[in-house]
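Issue 218. Parser rejects a valid record. Input:
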Amino acid sequence: MIDETRDLLEQALKLPSDARAVLATELVASLEGDAEDPLAVEQAWADEISRRLRDVLEGRVKAVPFEDAIARARQAVAEVRRRP
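Output the parser choked on:
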């Protein structure tokens, strides 16, 4: 991760959760090319949620407890922050 990106990430992580959510939504939308069409982003997320739910219900993936998922996410973030 380049220094400028790391600095931006550190600043973003200091924002309140609602501001981080808006920022994340806008960043994802920009990657998908749908920043001007929030309905397309919402539809894409609805499609993704449906796909993931089908995967769980049909046994293609195994759910993990919430606490485990959060612990893994925190560990991943900590590892990213430790990188030079």
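Fixed in the parser; the record now loads. The CA atoms of residues 68 and 74 lie 10 Å apart.
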